[in-house]
Amino acid sequence: MKIKVIAPIISDTFMDEMKKEFTGFSYPQTTIDVTNLDYGPASIESEYDEALCVPDFIEKVKQAEADGYDGVISNCFGDPGVKPAREVVDIPVIGPCEASMLFTSTLAKRFSVVTVLPNVVSMISNISKVTGVYHNLASIRYVNIPVLEVHEKAKLKSALLDEMLKAIKEDQAEALILGCTGFMGVASELQMKLTEKGYDIPVVDPGFAATKLLEATISMGVKQSRITYMKPPSKQRVMNTN
């Protein structure tokens, strides 16, 4: 199968690491290709950023379908553009936030998300409500590190571990989700550190969850329901190309 991973941002900072990560997540027979946007925000840290990324993201999804890809991942924890894209293509489109929350809800009764900034807390909370797992959400915590600075791994891992311990001790979290797809390559180490401290609980990487959910969806030969995600009505739509 062929999967296109689209970073819904104009920054190419994460491209090489994304390719390596998603190739490692997928089955050997799965082909992974990554791309980013031609126009939109440098990172997504607000509803405004998300709105700006959606038009070009949808065009990239449509191109992926035309190029023969079997499915698409919107590689941002806000799942930008996923629902409108599902309306316009006939291949499955998966968001890491939705995927990781669904996975984690099978592993624990209560989970916490540890994300980047306070700006995105309400966005993540809203996704949990739409996904139907809000009652499982113990808390949303943040490390106060902007998306474009998460490459400082030592600082990131220390901040994540601190917030994860607070989520367990103060919020009664029984599982944890990394709340940014830029938090690459840290899930296993953080899970090990928690185990060493006496907390044998899962730490779910959202990119990994999205990859496995998409591979399963493609293997099953299913896609989004046309009752839930109806094709948009035919009408004139003018796009600003300036």
Automatic annotation (TrEMBL):
InterPro entries: Asp/Glu/hydantoin_racemase, Hydantoin_racemase-like, Iso_Racemase_Enz_sf
Residue ranges that the Swiss-Prot or TrEMBL entry lists as coiled coil: none
Superkingdom assignment: Bacteria
Family the UniProt entry places it in: Belongs to the HyuE racemase family.
The name this protein goes by in its record: Aspartate/glutamate racemase family protein
Classification of source organism: Bacteria, Bacillati, Bacillota, Bacilli, Bacillales
